[in-house]
Design brief:
By secondary structure, this protein is of the alpha/beta class. It has helices at 9-16, 27-31, 49-55, 72-75, 78-91, 152-158, and strands spanning 2-3, 23-24, 37-39, 45-47, 64-70, 92-103, 114-120, 123-128, 164-169, 174-180. It has a single domain, classed as Vaccinia Virus protein VP39 (Rossmann fold).
Length: 181
Amino acid sequence: MLDMGSTSPGNIRFFTDRGHKNYSEDLLRSSLDPALRVKDEAGNLVVDSKKFLDENLAYPNGHFDVVLCWNLPDYMEESLVKPTIDRLWSVMKPRGVLLAFFHTRDAGPDSTCYRYHVTESDTLEMQEVKIAPPGRPATEKQSPRLQRVFNNRHIENLFRDFASIKFFLARDAMREVLVVR
């Protein structure tokens, strides 16, 4: 199983106690690495999505049964979202399951980004994520900015190569999405 949030000892313990091998990739933090920035044709600094994927999610095809994507697409830069989801499709086994959360409405620039910790089979604990913006000292940590709010059609398009998708309305203006490869 792949947990796409920062390392969570609780999640590792929860899943390994149930016999699962657990991998963690903090893709949100990795996507903010200044070394990934290149200039586009207009001279603007943009994220090099190829380099990002070469350095992250470097697993063999069909490696994972489960991916916990959490709320990553809402906070990740637009240019990385679709390539990341496409890579996840590749590294997941057929009939593998992906769990993602999406905001149902724009919470504004001051929305809080959370890291999720599984505490029981039906309970998650939330912890605020704070990251120093690129080029800023570590002491200036803040919650990452909500980049966008996906509507259902956008989410369906994002996962269009997957076999099925189910939406569930969750608490706190969040949508829970279960996707099967």
